[in-house]
Amino acid sequence: MIRAYSRSPFPRRSFHYYNQILQSQIFSPDNYTFNFMVRSCTQICESPEIGFSIHSAIVKYGFELDPHVQSGLIHMYSEFGILGSCLSIYSTLFEPDLVSQTAMVSACAKSGEVHIAREMFDKMPVRDSIAWTAMISGYAQSGRSREALRLFRIMLSEDVKVNEGTLVSVLSACSHLGALDQGRWVHVYMEKNNVRMTVTLGTALVDMYSKCGNMCKAVEVFEKMREKNVYTWSSFMNGLAINGFGIECIEMFDLMKKEGVQPNDVTFVSVLRGCSVAGLVEEGIKHFDSMSNFYGLEPRQEHYGCVVDLYGRAGYLEDAINFIQGMPIKPHAAAWGALLNACNIHGNLKLSELASRKLVELECKNDGAYVNLSNIYAESSEWVKVSNVRKLMKNAGVKKIPGCSVIEVNGEDHEFLVGDETHPRYGEIKVMMGEIARRLRLPGYVANPNPVSFDMEEEENYNFLVNGLDQPRNYKDFT
User: Which regions does the record annotate with the repeat PPR (predicted)?
Assistant: First the structure.
């Protein structure tokens, strides 16, 4: 019964039978009991105290050296985000087996220590598909999508069996990079190898096609899915919203409710985005209010940020700032960022300065906040304040991260950094940029340097914008 509930949506019920064992005069918990109790605790990851108590009982009954229990504990603490405990348990293993090694790789990856995970992964004498998936997933979740795709190619070259988790992580990496060709390849691979289209895989495909801008394929996958859950609907609606189909997003929300699918907090992020894109301010506010009034959902930071964006895009800047000031939670970076974006669109320098200052206060390491604040002062020719912003950055140890873009050509990713000349075809690119700039000037185009007026000494931006040349114009020129 404990095992059954540990694998069910109701893991807390395992404790009823566990307590009966403890109260029994005949039975006592064994290694199997604790193995499944650890699994239950892992599922109840919002209550780590329960996991601590089970770990204490494991030590009390002398099963702390059982390899299966140890692997389970590593996985449990990984879900709790307590990497130190994972490492502590792993250090007690005399001869770590494949299961415990894989659990440790996954724990390091989930905790953001991807380099440690990769070192352990590379040292594993044997690696099964679960180990490969753990490493690929770690790269994808930490935003290192290119490494995830590279490792996936190596996995295929070594004829390791691909599982559902692998494909979901790879599709997530494709979504992050906008790597449509590679995402298509995964889809074809699934069809050729008769991989069953589960809800999770279908949702990942819908998300990938949506974020890569191919809504036709997203619609096709969505309509072919026999089973959909709330995350499938939410992902599809989000895809419609981010691709500019705000009205269709709201229509899909109505259809989802007619199908009897209960919306969750993720759904409402998509709905609010759809209203924002479509300019449906009143309807967006109604949906926001319905979260708590009708569905019993507590709005999170993302929802408040969406409402600020909803007001801001429509030009209701005063309503946006009033909403921020009336929020029941402390205004966060996403809310001020949404206001800042709206102010930049509608040219409100006064509120832009306020939003930028708030962002700098909240995220002292956010280089973009400093850059935007400096640009606001530069546009007003307030060079002393520009200099002060640079001093603030220097004192805080913040450096301007060069702009970066990634494009996919024939299934290969090409990354470009500002001022970077290392691309193997840089010479051809430079010639083509010069030709584009020449053609732009023929009908009278003149570049506006203001959006990139911050740097100055590092990014050599002005004449690059105007002429496509490498003649720098730096910060001192603007002063």
Answer: 128-162, 229-263
DSSP secondary structure, 156-181, as one string? HHTTPPP-HHHHHHHHHHHHHHT-HH
pLDDT tens per residue, range 394-418: 877 777 766 677 777 776 777 787 7
Enter the tokens of residue 358: 């708030």
Name 19's Cβ contacts closer than 8 Å, sequence gap at least 6: none
Q: What is the DSSP letter of 125?
A: S
Between vectors from CA 415 to CA 140 and to CA 202, what angle results, nearest 5°? 35
Name all domains of the chain by residue range, CATH numbers in brackets.
1-126 (1.25.40.10), 405-468 (no CATH)
β-strand partners of 412: 409
Is the Cβ–Cβ distance between 197 and 225 less than 8 Å? Answer: yes
- DSSP letter (8 states) at residue 263: P
Q: Rounded to whole angstroms, how far apart are CA atoms 473 and 117?
A: 44
What's the pLDDT score for residue 470? 40
Instruction: Residue count of the chain, please give it.
Output: 479
Q: Specify which residues 408 forms β-bridges with.
A: 413
Asked whether the beta carbons of 36 and 73 are under 8 A apart, the reply is no
State how far the Cα of 309 lies from the Cα of 327, in Å rounded to an integer: 14
Which residues lie below 8 Å from residue 320, measured CB to CB, with a gap of 6+? 308, 311, 312, 338, 339, 342
E-only strand ranges, 296-438:
404-409, 412-417
CB neighbour burial string for 277-302, b if at least 16 within 10 angstroms, e if fewer: bbebbebbbebbeebeeeeebebbeb
Residue 450 pLDDT level (bands cut at 50, 70, 90) = low
Greatest mean pLDDT among 187-201, 379-393, 458-472: 187-201
